[in-house]
Amino acid sequence: MLSPGTTAQADPPTPVVPLPRRRGIEFTLIVLAVLLSVYGYCDVGIARTGSVPPGAVGYGAGLGVLALLAHLAVRLRAPYADPLLLPIGVLLNGLGLVLIYRLDLETPDDPAAPTQLVWSTLGMGLFIAVMVLLRDHRVLQRYTYVSVVSALVLLVLPIFFPSVNGARIWVRVAGFSIQPGEFAKVLLAVFFAGYLAANRNALAYTGRRVWRLQLPTGRVLGPILAIWLLSVGVLVLERDLGTSLLFFGLFVILLYVATGRTGWIAVGLLLAVCGAVAVGWLEPHVHSRVEDWLHPFASIEAGLGPNQLAQSLFSFAAGGMLGTGLGLGHSILIGFAAKSDFILATAGEELGLAGLSAIFLLYGLLVERGYRAGLALRDPFGRLLAVGLASIVALQVFVIAGGVTGLIPLTGMAMPFLAQGGSSVVTNWIIVALLMRLSDSARDRSGTATAEGIEGVRGGATP
Amino acid sequence: MTRYIRHAAAFCALLLIALLVNATRIQLVQARSYDENPANRRHTIARYGQPRGDILVGGKPVTGSKDSGEQFRYERTYRNGPLYAPVTGFSSQVYGTNLLEGAEDDILAGTDPLLSPLPLWNDLTRARNPGGHVVTTLDPAAQEAAFAGLGDRRGAVAALEPSTGRILALVSTPSYNPEELSGTDSAVARAWTRLNQAANKPMLNRAVRQTYPPGSTFKVVTAAAALDAGVVEDLDEPTKSPAPYRLPGSSVRLTNEVEGCADASLRYAFTWSCNTVFAKLGVDVGVVRMRAGAAGFGFNERQLRIPFRVSPSTFDTRVDQAQLALSSIGQYNTRATPLQMAMVAGAVANNGSVRTPHLVERTTTDDGDTVSATGQRTLRQAMNPATAVQLRELMTDVVERGTGKNAAIPGATVGGKSGTAQHGIHNSGTPYAWFISWAKADDAMEPAVAVAVVVEDAEADRGDISGGGDAAPIARDVMEAVLTP
User: Fold this and answer.
1) B455, β-bridge pairs
2) Are the beta carbons of B366 and B53 closer than 8 angstroms?
3) Taking Cα atoms as reference points, which of B107, B113, B212 lies closest to residue B154?
4) Is the ipTM of this complex over 0.85?
5) What is the C-alpha to C-alpha distance for residues A379 and A451, in angstroms, rounded to an integer?
6) Which residue of A has its CA nearest to B72?
7) C-beta separation of A207 from A215 below 8 A
């Protein structure tokens, strides 16, 4: 595909041939995902108490019914959608519930699995809603600016609420905690995709040339740069470093994909380094995270006992190749974030490197299917949106998994589907729903989404 | 755009590979170093995650486990804690283990690979074996007699079976209850501080970890060396020793507590504990043969474990003639643990040979299957068997008509030797009362027990301290407890 003659615009027209729908495969995989989750749930109970936990039937039935409803919605409204996306979501969500339920056994006063189940239901409900209500993803392009305004409002909202554990990213409503920044991810992806799809040629080919870099005009670059700086600035104020890193990466990736300018990556990296140094310098919170990353055992040597990261590393190490088995690890030693940011440590300890790699590969597959939808789509907005949503998943996984395994400094963020956190589960179900919709458009060669119909909508002339 | 999407996808793939490689690094490559980090509590959690095996005395456990429901789940309990503390030691979540709890920890905690049904089975299943049991050689009656005999006084008793080396009693007073150190709450830390700071050191195992000047009880060793070396050939022949005895190369004149020691026979000198005779004997035997004689009993042996470590008893070999004279009557740098002196008495009882003492009869799995048994262990010849016969005669005389009358037991032959050891600067400390002895029931072939008792009583009036008076009755009670079925 990377032969010299190929350019971005030279995608050959695809003949209109009906593609297999593969809904049967999806159904089989969903059944497997539900059974695997129920098996894990029973496994925890047997390992801990010697008997199948009483909720096993209800849990399995609940997850199964939700998954089947989602499957039905897909059958009716997105028959050509990628058959892997929904089963992966169900499996990760089910595994997450198992892991949280397992950790609940260590903290009987503070159960999180029931709430998580409620949120998962809501998430899958929204998945169905997206399937039913959003017939064509291009509708979203109309809401490019509504999206960015909503995103900014959501990002700013938590400033008016008290901070939790050092981060000011929560909104408490009627006993439920919501993390508006999570929803802002999707909205910002919509904005980036919409804006870049409309202006990508201007970004790529106009403006002054400085040395080897073609600068776009300020009129085109200005708004998006402003939005981006604003969101990152707000997040830094709220100490939500993971999300600011995510927005940064999302922005650079989409800018690169839209314009094909390698220079953007260079500029992005330069900005990232400057930003990181500045934040690390000015923010004691970040500074200590970097210190922890460089010297995870410093607090042990200082006689203060292991910190969260050290405990997390101990967890992973204890898992080894095959893990201790569900319910038999001691990842609860990590402390308060064991069910949220550090949920992977439990997976690593109890499922081992084998299980952890499987989970990583599931995410990898999810991202790959997203990218595949992007490649198959013909409209720039759809392509950018698919790439953006898939990249959100990829970056989230990398930022948090890299953090808890000591690859990069730790920044708080939820592991998609696995971690405790309602907003995160709901958002990720919306992401999967949108990817489903995009892949349906990509694979449905029957009518609506033909190549010719779309390219010109907003992007000006298509060369 | 396709090309750039592919590039971005490749970037995501790189991120995935980085995660996988890094996960392999921490979960496989560096896992061991993380596992072994002392701050990693997993070993401790696993260790206390199941009940610990028991230590058995006379077929009954003297330990137990209770479920605390906490992270370090099972806590150790002790039956008769203070009585058996010098044997069991403690097993504490916070302070670790010592003595048998420490030496047999692998068995008790279930980590010993010998406990698993098949080799490598546990590596495969990641299962933990239930804790095994440790069967001790102790005789509960002897242990109780020793503990009761010492009472409130500071001291120690060691008793063993001469023909096998099985330790029958190991008592140290004042004692403590090791259960106070089980668990993790603040009371444990308070108990630890209190026990460690207490002036009378209740956690010190005086029977095996404290050395004392053995005083006159060491005369058994000197007599054996002299008889073996032929320096004395007839027990009743005069020994040509003056009283008082001027220590060679010095102006110090050694005296006796009793009359009639000048030129006394070995029998008289042994029965009435003449310092002058034995000091001169030691000099006559010479440092080389005295050292060899002492080493035969186990002095200067640094590696003794029963299975926990025993402090080495010492006979200083870099001495001048005057120091050798004092060393030969159990003073100067001669120091011995009570267990060592029980071995001395045991050698006499066992025809001159010393069996390595041991406290563990065997270890078993949770089901009672033997994991390992202590066989007959090394035998060391401390003296000629003929010499042993002569020494038995001498020691019997001590009990029948000498300083050890308090140790006599009706229906048994008892041999003993008392000692009153000077210590402190210019011997200013309250002397230690010693008594070592052995006993043979009249209808038995072999002496069944050898015992050493030391009483260090700072409270008592100095003049009242004597081996025969303070220590011999305790030794008698212990021997009687062994002899009485």
Assistant:
1) B155, B433
2) yes
3) B212
4) yes
5) 7
6) A330
7) yes
Helix (H, G, I), strand (E, B) or coil at B476: helix
Q: Measure Cα distances from B15 to A374, A402, A459, B18, B175 in Å.
A: 19, 9, 31, 5, 63
> Distance of alpha carbon A262 from its chain centroid, rounded?
25
Task: Identify the pLDDT of residue B277.
Answer: 93
**Contact call for residues A280 and A287 (beta carbons, < 8 A):** yes
Contacts of A435 (CB under 8 A, 6+ apart): A82, A85, A369, A370, A373, A386, A389, A390
What is the predicted pLDDT for the residue at B22?
A: 96
The CA distance from B281 to B265, in Å, is 11
Question: pTM here?
Answer: 0.74
Q: Give me the pLDDT at residue A174, please.
A: 67
pLDDT digits (tens, 9 = 90+) for B170-219: 999 999 999 999 988 899 999 999 999 999 999 999 999 999 999 899 99
CA distance B332 to B215: 9
What is the number of CB-based contacts under 8 A between chain A and chain B? 145
Mean pLDDT of chain B: 90
Half-sphere exposure for A101 (CA within 13 Å, toward CB): 23
- Rounded to whole angstroms, the Cα distance separating A363 from B123 reads 32
Compute how many other C-beta atoms are within 10 angstroms of the C-beta atom of residue A343.
Answer: 27
Residue B28 contacts A where some CB pair is shorter than 8 Å: yes
Q: Which of B221, B268, B248 is nearest to B256 (CA)?
A: B268
Residue A435 burial class via C-beta count within 10 angstroms: exposed 0-12, middle 13-18, buried 19 and up: buried
Helix boundaries (H) for B286-383: 287-297, 321-327, 338-349
% of chain B residues with pLDDT over 90: 63
Tokens of B203: 């956690």
A310 contacts B27? CB cut-off 8 A: no
Residue A263 pLDDT more than 80? no
Q: In which residue are the tokens 């600035």 written?
A: A233
Which helix H or strand E contains A234, and what residues bound it?
helix A218-237
Q: In A, which residues are within 8 Å of B13 by CB distance?
A: 364
pLDDT, tens digit (0-9, with 9 covering 90-100), for A191-246: 999 998 988 877 777 666 666 666 666 677 777 777 767 766 776 777 777 787 88
Alpha-carbon Rg of chain A, whole angstroms? Answer: 22
Q: Return the ∠ at Cα A221 (arms to A252 and A453), rounded to 5°.
A: 80
Query: Does residue B237 surpass a pLDDT of 80?
Result: yes
**Token reading at B377:** 């262990």
Distances (CA, A) of A402 to A427, A456, B34: 21, 40, 18
Give CA separation, B304 vs B156, B190, B295, B300, B338, in Å: 19, 33, 13, 10, 14
Alpha helices per DSSP H over B104-199: 105-109, 121-125, 140-150, 186-197
> Would the pLDDT of A164 be above 80?
no
Distances (CA, A) of B160 to A43, A388, B175, B366, B377: 54, 82, 20, 28, 14
CA A23 to chain CA mean position, Å: 24
Looking at the complex, does the CB of residue B3 fall below 8 Å from at least one CB of chain A? Answer: yes
SS3 B59: coil
As a whole number of angstroms, the distance between CA B436 and CA B337 comes to 12
Which residue in chain B has the smallest CA separation from A252?
B8
Q: How far does Cα A45 stand from its chain's mean position?
A: 30
Residues of A within 8 A of B20 (CB-CB) are 357, 360
Q: What pLDDT score was predicted for residue B427?
A: 65
Contacts of B32 in chain A (CB under 8 A): 317
Listed by number, the residues of chain A in 343-372 with a beta carbon closer than 8 Å to a beta carbon of chain B are 348, 352-353, 356-357, 360-361, 363-364, 367-368, 371
Beta strand pairing call for B154-160 and B60-61: unpaired
Give dist(CA A99, CA A40) in Å, integer: 9
Specify the DSSP class assigned to residue A215. P
Distance CA B172, CA B86 (A): 6
